[in-house]
């Protein structure tokens, strides 16, 4: 079967129903398109664990805050098809905004799925108020539409991954969430659709984000456990033109800050380079 592009929910449901009737397992890779090798690795993982791989390509308006890049977010469906096909995707679900939100006049018209405030008033959620409500709502809709057995999410969006895992547990979705490793350029820069906004000069500045994380990792490998010391080292490695939003050490079990690295600790950061918001993280202890 070659790659099929589906725009309507009803059509996708028909196809999925038929696959389920034939006993096929389904894996979903939710994306906003502008696919890069990070997305490709999610799709390859999905393809390796399920009979049918569905990738959604939908720039979700309700997860963008006022003043963010919703209008200019790259829409590249033609090249996305090539990436998806090369990764073994069977179906691209690319609905219009009207297909996903037919009655949307304003956010308050929608039934929303919202993560707990204490887990969103930190890190990315602190500056992107309402962002994770928009993410959880669209992911819930995609889960209900596609009814996958598995869903693959990248570890670059580490807070998103944590919140989705919690949502699946709290709301009893019969779906296994598959976390997939962050993918970097050879230079160390974490792959992101937003890297497209960076000039060559800004890319060089952005490299200091991964440099800071690698320096922290180096300290930890050398035996340092105190996160305050690692924080200071991280700061000294950042280019002076980086506007740091946060650099945090948190437990991946609770997302609470940690003073000393123990089990399941990650170091995550968000920063702006030339106005472009970038995120990155490194796992210190699994
Ligand atoms: O990670 C993303 O690209 C988006 O937040 C997601 C999960 C596709 C929901 O729109």
Description of the structure:
The protein folds into 2 domains: 4-180, 3-Layer(aba) Sandwich (Rossmann fold), CATH 3.40.50.620; 193-278, Pantoate--beta-alanine Ligase, Chain: A,domain 2, CATH 3.30.1300.10. Helices cover 39% and strands 20% of the residues. It has helices at residues 9-21, 37-49, 77-86, 97-100, 117-120, 123-127, 131-146, 158-170, 200-221, 227-237, and strands at 4-6, 26-31, 52-57, 91-93, 150-154, 176-180, 243-251, 265-273, 276-285. The strands form 2 sheets. It has a 6-stranded parallel beta sheet with strand order 1-4-3-2-5-6, sandwiched between helices. A hairpin with a 2-residue loop joins strand 8 and strand 9 (276-285). It is globular, with a radius of gyration of 19 Å. The mean pLDDT is 97. The chain binds pantoate (PAF). Pantoate binds at residues 30-32, 60, 63, 135, 138-139, 157, 160.
Low-confidence sequence ranges: none
Query: Which structural class matches the secondary elements?
Result: alpha/beta
CATH architecture of the largest domain: 3-Layer(aba) Sandwich
In CATH's first tier, which class of the largest domain applies? Alpha Beta
For this structure, what is the CATH homologous superfamily of the largest domain? HUPs
Q: Which ligands occur here?
A: pantoate
Task: Report, as a whole number of angstroms, the end-to-end distance.
Answer: 39 Å
Give the strand order of the largest sheet, numbering strands 1, 2, ... along the chain. 1-4-3-2-5-6
Number of helices: 10
**Oligomer designation:** single chain
Helix content: 25-40%
The dominant shape is: globular
β content, as a range?
15-25%
| CATH level 3 topology of the largest domain | Rossmann fold
Beta-strand segment tally: 9
Question: How many domains?
Answer: 2
Integer-rounded radius of gyration: 19 Å
H and E string: EHEHEHEHHHHEHEHHEEE
- Biggest sheet record: 6 strands, parallel
The mean pLDDT is 97
